[in-house]
Amino acid sequence: MDLSRINKMKINDPRFEQWAQSILEAEESDFSGNDDPHNDPDYVSEHESDSEIEWEPETVALETTLDVSDTTSQNAAPSNEHQEIPTSTPRTYYGKNRYKWTADAPPSNVRTRSHNIISHLPGVIGPAKTLGKLCLEKSGWECLITSDILDEIVLRSNEKLARIRTKYANGNR
Q1: Are 101 and 92 in contact, with CB atoms under 8 Å apart?
Q2: Least crowded by CB within 10 Å, which of 69, 76, 155, 168?
Q3: In which residue ranges is the amino acid composition biased (Polar residues) (predicted)?
Q4: What domain range includes position 2?
């Protein structure tokens, strides 16, 4: 059986080393042997800067997982669990106004920022709180509009009406 055709294999499998070696040999045969990009005339750089540092989290996670499992397989009894590397990215959707929505819940192990914490519950405050849930319309109106505010509204309305009367005064009446 050709081991290079197998996509997944458990680390504890006795054929794991042969399988990994066959994959590496197949990959090495694909390369031309010219690893120097400065001498390769067909090499096209993706970046303009030579000092840019690239970090590939999938490669680092793969190496870390393999190192840990190799040490555990040598020191402990073999287990039949298959260890996979999570390579999921958060699913996002964009609304009509280009607002970014995330389909996954935010991580629960992160501290909530202080401006997002509700320190007091919304509701009725002040004198309206003493009225309770079942209040009459007049008592609710008196909490919102005091007699001073009502007097001011009446005074300003009468002044406005007096100005309008002079513009539309009918001399025939």
Answers
A1: yes
A2: 168
A3: 67-91
A4: 1-29+60-75
